[in-house]
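Weekly sync notes, structure subgroup
Attendees: PM, AL, DS (notes)

Item 1: joint prediction request from the bench team. They want all two components modeled as one assembly rather than separately. Inputs as received:
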Amino acid sequence: MTSSPAIRCVGLSRWYGEVQGLAGLDISIDSGVIGLLGPNGSGKSTLMRMLTGQIRPSRGFVELFGVRMGPDSHDTFRRVGYSPGEDVHFENERGIDFLKLLAGLQGEGGPAAIKRAEEALQKVSMSEYAGKKMSAMSKGMRQRIKVAQALLFEPELLLLDEPLNGMDPVSRRSLIDLVRNHATIGGTVLLASHVLHEVESVTNRVILLHHGRLLAEGRLGEIRELIGRKPRRVRLIGTSLRSIAGDVLSKELATGVSFEDTGALLIETRQLNELLLHLSDIGTKGGIQQFDVEDENLEAIFNLLVGDFSE
Amino acid sequence: MKTPLSVMRQFALRQNLLSVKALPVFGIALFPSLMAFAFRVFKDAGLHSRFDFYGEYLAPIFLYLVLPFFCMTAILPLMHSLYDKGAIGYLVTRPTPRWVILLGLYQGALLAMIPALLLAVITPLLLLSIGDTSGALGGDSASTGAWFQRAIGLFGVLFMGSAAYSAVCLFLGAWSKKAAIWGFGLLIGWGATIGSVPGLLQPTSPHRYLFGLLREWCGIKEAWTGFFAPDLDPPGVVLSIVVLISATALFLWMAWRASRSRDIL
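Output from the run, pasted for the record:
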């Protein structure tokens, strides 16, 4: 093992014309799970792409395991698994073929590539959908495929950009377990999310980005205190939503429920953890296909941290 | 033995041959057949034999129109699906050099073109040659050997042209979001048009060298499309091959350079 940190950014900046994507970011990450938290447009995906050499810095540099990242730093990817924020646009490929393709790019072909792809699919509970075309998969399934491809070669460093988006409760829980296990065996995970709760369920070490700037770095506990007990909203897609609504109201896990025009159920709660635990128990068997926490308070917290009390 | 190059080649082959992306390419491939069919049915060019029509009219049409659109429809959608939707991010974050990824895509797309090229060359050949007993009005019918020699030569020219123009398209796809506009400008403007108009710029266009091969391999001395003046000093086979291979290599290198400098957003 090298003594260089898994991730090191020095004065990392990036402009898109006049818009600043990242501004003088200095971070160093050794091991464990670190949450990269920030609202949409805060620079999380820009940072992820710069870490993987897909975007060149306007100023500063990025190192992974002591190697300066750029378009020619492909060898470093033997130690890195990256799950992009973008959807998997390989519509014509079957899940297993997509993973075999990526295993092939890592120099593994034939039965070895198939075995590796199957193992990765198993880790994200997608074995039974291995032969399904990407175009026929739900968003949650494609999310799991994205994570599976990052896990293909058991990398030391996992870079996960919004990995929990659109996942069903059971998949969320298994991915969270998987990320924790990865850290337990000495790996490093950088998990980007705009949902505070998601990050909180995995780690309490966070990097907060806002408008491309490093706002704070450290423990989540202090930030949670700022949130207080303001209500949060959970958006559910699935069947039997009316009975789920009645159920959470009767158990006093919700302060209110409403339905969107699309048929999705919105639950307002002050007991987010308890509610999510309950929804996980209901799971897909109870009719939940997907849920997302709408963490509206995050922007407010960021505003507080930057001293912007305008709202 | 699977290598990253062969894996990418198979991926591009699969994408271009076994998906809806194949339909436009095969649609373009059928265009000369429609012309051949119309010629045979309406015989409006009664002054010419079917053999001459195939060589001196259809073959130039292949180079002016079919070949550029062929390459654009084969390469640009593939590159668009990878670059503009961010899918390339899954490929370039593997321990494989970017030139291997691009070369694999290029080779796969080129191989996927072969069935459509064969369709484009053989179907008009069959439509025109079957039952060609009367030959030209006032001339002899061409032998089967002459027909096939012309078809094989035409396939060779088209393959050389596909290699060069596909490399141009690969570069454009890796370099620009507006690859389709650039592709049209370069392949139709610089390729087909400038390469056909006598002048200082003509020798810079691959098109002139494709015509050089067409003359030598297919025995076509005149193109009676009436659009452009004939090339008074056509290049020979060796020069044409050297220029086309050099152009292919140059644009592949440029594609690699572009892939290194373009941000994946």
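Discussion: The longest strand of chain A covers residues 19-29.
Action: AL to compare against the crosslinking data before next sync.
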